Amino acid sequence: MKPKLINSIEEMSTVCRQLKGKIGFVPTMGFLHAGHLSLVSEAKRKTDIVIVSIYVNPTQFSANEDLSSYPRNIERDIELLTNLDVDYIFFPTDEQMYPDGYKTWLNVDKITQVLCGRSRPTHFRGVITIVAKLMNIIDPDLMFMGEKDFQQLVVLKQMIKDLNFRTKIVGCPIIREKDGLALSSRNKYLSYSGRKKALCLNKSLLLAQKLFNRGIISSNKIISQMTDLIEENECIIDYIEVFDQNTLEHIPKLISGSRIALAVIVENTRLIDNIKIL
Amino acid sequence: MKPKLINSIEEMSTVCRQLKGKIGFVPTMGFLHAGHLSLVSEAKRKTDIVIVSIYVNPTQFSANEDLSSYPRNIERDIELLTNLDVDYIFFPTDEQMYPDGYKTWLNVDKITQVLCGRSRPTHFRGVITIVAKLMNIIDPDLMFMGEKDFQQLVVLKQMIKDLNFRTKIVGCPIIREKDGLALSSRNKYLSYSGRKKALCLNKSLLLAQKLFNRGIISSNKIISQMTDLIEENECIIDYIEVFDQNTLEHIPKLISGSRIALAVIVENTRLIDNIKIL
Questions:
Q1: Nearest one of A99, A167, A89, A100 to A131, comparing CA atoms
Q2: Across A114-118, average pLDDT
Q3: Taking an 8 Å Cβ-Cβ cutoff, which residues of chain B contact chain A?
Q4: What ipTM is given for this predicted complex?
Q5: Which fold has domain B4-172?
Q6: Does domain B185-276 have CATH number 3.30.1300.10?
């Protein structure tokens, strides 16, 4: 059956309050790929009613970022979600989400200032705020998010815990192309040669695991070799960081369970990826 | 019947999710007076289940304020709430509300920076954050708050609207002693002569109404006469402000429906009061 499309906040909220059964929620910015669809499938497995939101949230983009060019294809998204038997698609307008005179913001200290927060200082404020709004509208039991935006996952878990939201987050593994490139709506921006260069993100993470397997545990040494690999591919590093995956704090020496994340600019596109060191 | 006392967030949240009927919520910092009790009575009238929280929220006090000396009397509070047939009293601990590593804050732009926000720059951040937490735990249909903290009422209404909380705020009128002093837990700090001086807050507001009735509409002229009256009583003015009661923006000329608010230091106690000009 085709999912019910809802664009009114009022209607979505009323519908959700009347639903019986466990609500699973997958927030997205649309232009869905297999990564999103894996979240939806997991939601279908774990809950009774699945709601997917499609909303390109303007407040998580800064003025110099790609809000206006961010890829959109709502017809195709609806088709994909219909195939997965999603119950509701929520796609509100900017005017509803941020009406004139909008003034309220959420923020999480410290862990929003590191990693992606350094080059995108207002990004997480926008993410946290929109997710709090969506949780209030939908009141889901479980919310499904990918580990590709690993910092986002940690930040939102902290927010949910701190503010006593009843929703639990389910983190889901990164989905990759066969050649290892992590799926991202922004991959669409890449040229043929850019697409090849972009493999250096995943390759450098696999290199880190290989070095760790050989007994190299110095974060600096590992980052240095990852840097070489990425720069050989003519990509520009925003950051490479080795950190504790609960606190996001830098660690000088890797242990099993540490995480390495990176942001790299390929052509003009900023891509992110990460790995849990085993 | 005695209200059920709950101090665990987990338990309060679970209980609230299972309640049938309209939930009315009155957040307080305890040391209840007739002002609080009027909110509880209104909640009893308008809802099926009434929950009162008693929690002296540390994050709305700044370092130089009266957190440690803020008056407390939980036994008396329970007695008063038992008399009013309240269903649940929620009194969590600081350790539960702000556990180690707590990091999340809400804020509302602009309207938290004026009036009380000028001399208490972090106050509203604390208020908004704790109220969001309490709303997430209790999920009330209606929340009852007094108009004495008029700015708080406006700020929380904005936050609830912006973040799509389903809860509606019911603003309730200021309750006064027979001689006009607005009820406040902080009145307890006043000496016998301070108690008399404190009447100048309400008197100056009534003077404003009288001047307006006589055709004087200049905010400056009215504030000037209020200032004289307060200073004659050896009290120190933090602010006197004439503003639009929806936007909290200063207005140079009073109209019917404008609000005047003031904060005045009597002895060492900062008191607030306000009036809607009719």
A1: A167
A2: 97
A3: 9, 13, 17, 102-111, 128-129, 132-133, 136-137, 158-159, 162-166
A4: 0.96
A5: Rossmann fold (3.40.50)
A6: yes
